[in-house]
Design brief:
The complex is a heterodimer of chains A (109) and B (114). Chain A is mainly beta and 109 residues long. In chain A, 0% of the residues lie in helices and 51% in strands. In chain A, strands 2, 5, 6, 9, 10 and 11 form a six-stranded mixed β-sheet that branches. In chain A, strand 5 and strand 6 form a beta hairpin. Chain A starts with a strand and ends with a strand. Chain B is mainly beta and 114 residues long. The radius of gyration of chain B is 13 Å and the shape is globular. Classes of the chains: A mainly beta (109), B mainly beta (114). Chains A and B meet through strand 5, strand 6 and strand 10 of A and strand 4, strand 5 and strand 9 of B.
């Protein structure tokens, strides 16, 4: 069975400080992982996907198969990064997309 | 395309009443997902469809919940009878088949059962 765990419900950091959101997964196959973000009063939307190895809005995430992790990082948090972040695991067989419990990030001025 | 459209945006109902949530996916998308969002559990996958056929409904909490997709452009999630613990935000999302494809979400329906 596929499972995604985000151990932190809330992360509160000051503007300019680094922020790291933890995500661990369990899946027997080759994982395809994503981070989605939900800003206040907006739809849930894709932030980044591991296959792209890209940096979006200063965020990066590295897939570590040995630790079964896909942590999201940003070296200098901004107030506009305050949002709800969800880690998601995609199972190609069946196109099933499973989310973690979410982490709320609050960036204080 | 206006994206995934859900209705209503807000629903307040009394315990025991039937509730129907509606979703119009993005045209051409093969997959449609129903999720429930709560503070305690985050985003839970309830059920999803491929080409209008239910693929996995293992996330549907009880028999009180049912979902249908009569055609490629419309799906419903019904709760009958509703209970206060069903209060949550219900999201619909659609996507294309394939690896690393993005799921597009609707704005959600906030359901309050009193």
């Amino acid at each position: 069975a596929q499972r995604v765990t985000q151990p932190e419900k809330l992360l509160s950091v000051f503007k300019g400080a680094p922020v790291e959101l933890k995500c661990n997964y369990s899946y027997s196959g080759s994982p395809e992982l994503f981070w989605y973000v939900q800003y206040s009063r907006q739809r849930l939307q894709l932030l980044l996907r591991h296959i792209s190895r890209e940096s979006i809005k200063g965020f990066t995430a590295d897939l570590n198969k040995g630790e079964t992790s896909f942590h999201l990082k940003k070296p200098f948090a901004q107030e506009e990064d305050s949002a709800m972040y969800y880690c998601a695991l995609f199972k190609a067989a069946g196109n099933k997309l499973t989310f973690g419990g979410g982490t709320r990030v609050l960036v204080k001025p | 395309d206006a994206g995934v459209i859900q209705s209503p945006r807000h629903e307040v109902t009394e315990m025991g009443q039937e509730v129907t949530l509606r979703c119009k996916p993005i045209s051409g998308h093969d997959y449609l997902f129903w999720y429930r969002q709560t503070m305690m559990r985050g985003l839970e996958l309830l059920i999803y469809f491929n080409n209008n056929v239910p693929i996995d409904d293992s996330g549907m909490p009880e028999d009180r919940f049912s979902a249908k997709m009569p055609n490629a452009s419309f799906s419903t999630l019904k709760i009958q009878p509703s209970e206060p613990r069903d209060s949550a935000v219900y999201f619909c999302a659609s996507s294309l088949v394939g690896e690393n494809t993005e799921a597009f979400f609707g704005q959600g329906t906030r359901l309050t059962v009193v």
